[in-house]
């Protein structure tokens, strides 16, 4: 059975991505990163709950709190406000919830682990079409990072970055997750709260939009 490193934040997209990796027949190695985010403990719980659901044995939790020390994001800097989705003006501007170059940091860790366990796939639940517009969630970024992997790993290493959700809308992600019987009820998407989801941040709004488009009820409780 081929091995795959799955970047499992505990959010809805990473939950569905895990389901895709398992459905593809891979032996999953689940990677979770704590980077000083507001909902760090709740996301970690979601990670472990999803791993338990799938009986994933190989789990790695890594602390990269230097991202919080660097700052620049409302997800890690509590002096900054997490904007509500309705207050954001659609534009080319990157929202302040963007954590500078986070996915490159995480992919680098995943690549190191993949080299050691000889995994040939890195799965990440990035979404380009229907997301917040983060620059490190674009397909062009992942294809460029594959070249970095080819250049910077030992000879004979063959690691592909798999982005099964990259071109999907949130509604398609929800519907696909339900079709794959992904445990969406165990996932956590809220940027602000760890008890009841706020329902107004970008991540909550996109999640709710996805369930509405899919004609389903979100099993997560909101304020």
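Sequence proposed for the structure above (223 residues):
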């Amino acid at each position: 059975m081929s091995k795959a490193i799955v970047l499992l934040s505990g959010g809805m997209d990473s939950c569905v991505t895990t389901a895709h990796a398992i459905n593809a027949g891979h032996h999953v190695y689940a990677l979770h990163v704590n980077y000083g985010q507001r909902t760090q403990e709740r996301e970690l719980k979601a990670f472990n709950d999803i791993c338990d659901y799938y009986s994933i044995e190989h789990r790695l939790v890594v602390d990269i709190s230097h991202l919080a020390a660097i700052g620049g994001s409302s997800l890690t800097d509590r002096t900054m406000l997490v904007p509500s989705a309705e207050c954001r003006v659609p534009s080319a501007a990157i929202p302040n919830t963007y954590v500078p170059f986070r996915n490159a940091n995480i992919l680098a860790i995943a690549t190191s682990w993949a080299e050691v366990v000889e995994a040939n796939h890195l799965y990440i639940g990035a979404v380009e079409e229907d997301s917040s517009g983060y620059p490190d969630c674009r397909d062009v970024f992942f294809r460029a990072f594959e070249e970095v992997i080819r250049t910077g790993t030992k000879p004979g290493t063959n690691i592909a970055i798999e982005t099964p959700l990259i071109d999907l809308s949130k509604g398609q992600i929800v519907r696909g997750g339900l079709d794959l019987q992904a445990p969406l009820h165990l996932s956590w998407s809220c940027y602000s709260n760890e008890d009841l989801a706020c329902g107004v941040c970008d991540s909550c709004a996109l999640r709710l939009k996805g369930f509405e488009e899919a004609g389903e009820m979100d099993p997560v409780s909101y304020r």
